[in-house]
Amino acid sequence: MKLFQPLLVILSGFLFLLYLRYFRSSFSDRFFALLIWICALMTILFPGITQIFAEMVGVGRGADLFFYLFVVGTSFVGLMLYSKVCAVERLQTMTIRQLACNNAVCVSNKSRDLK
Amino acid sequence: MASDRETILKKSSTLESSSWIVIPAYNEDESLPRVLREIQSHGRTENGSEPKLDYTIVVIDDCSAVPITQLDLPEGVFVLRHLINLGQGAALQTGISFALSRGASEIVTFDSDGQHCVEDIHRLVEPVSSGKYDVCLGTRFASGGSAVGIPLFRFYFLKLAVLFTRLTTGLALTDTHNGFRCFSRSAASQISITQNRMSHGSQILSEIKRCHLNFLEVPVTIRYTSYSLNKGQRLSNAFNIVWESTMELLRR
């Protein structure tokens, strides 16, 4: 076993535990995360596996297959985050709109005294 | 203090006209008071001994550095303030929601930088108030309309934008994105502006198409001054508009 392997196992395990601890998610999401973690463990401990899968799907090298999956994965995560940001922005807009309507002021000498 | 505010709002409701003008504003302390006075002096009729305003104005302060309530504004104007800067689209929707909640029957959107002419307001409101149309859109490029002082590059760029709008919305318009419109109560209730920033103009047109609203283009005058050109949209915003419109399409 090379030095990077136990380091990556510990790091990925730590990230998985962080996910379980801090992210609110459904059982199916957690199960999916567990599957990804097991796949990561297998590729760390047995790097040759990626080569077998790469040849199965017609990609020359295991590293290439990993790279393609990484690009697809990060794009998906990027879109998910964008969607979350939009949802938060919509919620923020609704809140600020409601506050603005509730605190409407009609300009008059009296309303100026209210400030 | 809150009850005082409610009393003032209730009292003012008896003086309100059913035609509302929604004006989004962000750091427009130089032009806004003048624009508001122009609207009020133009739309004022004598009703017996009491002067009556033809339009009720609501200004949405999109978190300007100097709060708009601190400016020297004419009486009777409603001011709503966003706690953070959200963008012109969000400010318009806030004003429209507020006007609807106060019983508006027609809602005009008007710019705060002095580009729009108050003389055109009635021409936009009339077809909607008569019930013939749901929406009136101001156009500077149709016969009778004009774009005073428009830079040549902007003119051709806007022509391209008209073409883009035709392709994306399918609406045969002669102008796009000049911000001068009038909605009936029903149309304003159906249209939902979720694009907070500058692409709300395209979204409104898409909403007109989606809701099958009956619309009319009315020739208007748009005045370009060095102030409005500095304050207005930059041409680079076009890329943001295309990006935001595309993401909106994907979200649906």
Topology:
The complex is a heterodimer of chains A (115) and B (252).
Chain A (H helix, E strand, L loop, with lengths): L3 H19 L4 H19 L2 H10 L4 H41 L2 E2 L2 H6 L1
Helix pairs in contact in A: 1-2, 3-4
Chain B lengths: L1 H12 L5 E7 L6 H11 L1 E4 L2 E4 L1 E7 L16 E4 L6 H14 L4 E4 L11 H9 L5 E5 L6 E3 L3 H18 L11 E4 H6 L9 H11 L4 E5 L1 E3 L2 H6 L5 H15 L1
Parallel strand pairs in B: 1-4, 1-6, 4-5, 7-10, 8-11
Antiparallel strand pairs in B: 2-3, 6-9, 7-9
Architecture overview:
The complex is a heterodimer of chains A (115) and B (252). Chain A is mainly α and 115 residues long. Chain A has two domains: 1-46; 62-103. In chain A, 83% of the residues lie in helices and 2% in strands. Chain A has helices at 4-22, 27-45, 48-57, 62-102, 109-114; one strand at residues 105-106. In chain A, α1 (4-22) packs antiparallel against α2 (27-45) and α3 (48-57) crosses α4 (62-102). The radius of gyration of chain A is 25 Å and the shape is elongated. Chain B is an alpha/beta fold. Chain B has one domain: Alpha-Beta Complex (Spore Coat Polysaccharide Biosynthesis Protein SpsA, Chain A). Helix content of chain B is 40%, strand content 20%. Chain B has nine helices and eleven strands. Chain B has a seven-stranded mixed β-sheet, with helices on both faces. In chain B, a hairpin with a 2-residue loop joins β2 (44-47) and β3 (50-53). The radius of gyration of chain B is 18 Å and the shape is globular. Chain A binds chain B through residues 82-83, 86, 89-90, 92-93, 96-97, 99-101, 103-112, 114-115, and chain B through 1, 4-5, 8-9, 12, 58, 60, 69-70, 73-84, 86, 90, 93-94, 97-98, 101, 194, 196, 247, 251.
Summarize the structure.
The complex is a heterodimer of chains A (115) and B (252). By secondary structure, chain A is mainly α.
